[in-house]
Structure formats: structure tokens, C-alpha cells
Amino acid sequence: HMHFFIGGGIPKEFALMDAQEKGGYRRGLGLKLLDYTWNPETKTFRFSVEMRNLNIGHYLPTGDPERFIKIRLKIFAPGNEVEKTYRIGQHWQWEPEAKQIQDNRLRSGEVRVWQESVSPGARPNRIRLEAVHIRLSEKNARYMEQSSQRVPEQYRSKIARLREHYPMQRLLHSEDILIPFSGQTPIQD
To answer: Is residue 9 within 8 Å of 25, Cβ to Cβ?
Structure first.
């Protein structure tokens, strides 16, 4: 008679995170850097990232239309850092009436490749690939905190201190990838 509904992996309170892990939470996003190239003539770095809907039989993300997944690629070059992001989710216009503007969620089993080029100025030596599942955006959190006096009194103090108890996001994936130089030999012991 136990019913664990893990959902997106972001519990309603920080204290519930361990219970979610024990309940069998598995991330539904597969993420992999497929390839990258450096063009020394144009000083352009091109990359391809694979995003895959795993383990779930519905769209990713799902639930509240404000949820989204932010894929972030940080490219580190000597003296410079460039960041590119890709957003998976829905976009809504809420005023004057609710209307969906865009929906690029991953369908069940879908594989999508994000390709882009950047100009970091010098040959990159490291990449950080991250994915963050965001339940509540920074903009909406500020709005809720600032308007907490409008809600019933028993909820005011909790909403005014929202960040202390309500997880707004969860890191799904983070990896650092070193980019070897051409002709570089492995370090010997």
C-alpha cells in the first residue's frame, strides 16, 4: 500500500529529498556531449549535445507548465568563459489571458541534438555540461515573496521565506570534460 509518486524529482520541501531518493527517483533526461570541433582560422568552437527522454512514458518535463529544464554548456578557454543554454519546456503568456506560446518538451523516447557554434577567442581546454530541472523561476519566486502579504495569514511567513524550505530546482547532470590538445600524450607515472 505504499505509493511513491516521484515525479520530477523536486519535492515540496528540502526535508523530503532523501525520501524521494529512497522511493526510487531516477532522472528522465539522458544527456551526452556527442562531439566538438575547433576551427583555429575562425576561432570558432562547434559542439553537439544529445538530449534523450529516458525512463518515462510522457513529455519531459511534465506537470506545471512553468517547469523547464535548462541545459548549460560552459566553454572554458584561456582568459575567457562562454556559456550557451538550451531550454526544454513550455512558454506561456499569462496576461491578459493564459495562452501557450511554445512547447519544445521531449516526447517519450525522443532523442534531440542541439548543435551550436561559439567564438571563445582561444582554443577551449575544458567544457562543463549541466542540466537543471527548474520548478520555480527566479522571477516567479521574487513575485511570490514580494506579494506574500496578499495570501491568508497562516501562509504569509512561509511564502515570504520561500527559499528556506521550498526547493526551486534540482541539478540533474553535471560533468567536466577536458579537451586534449592535438598530439598530447598521456601523463606517465
So the answer is: yes
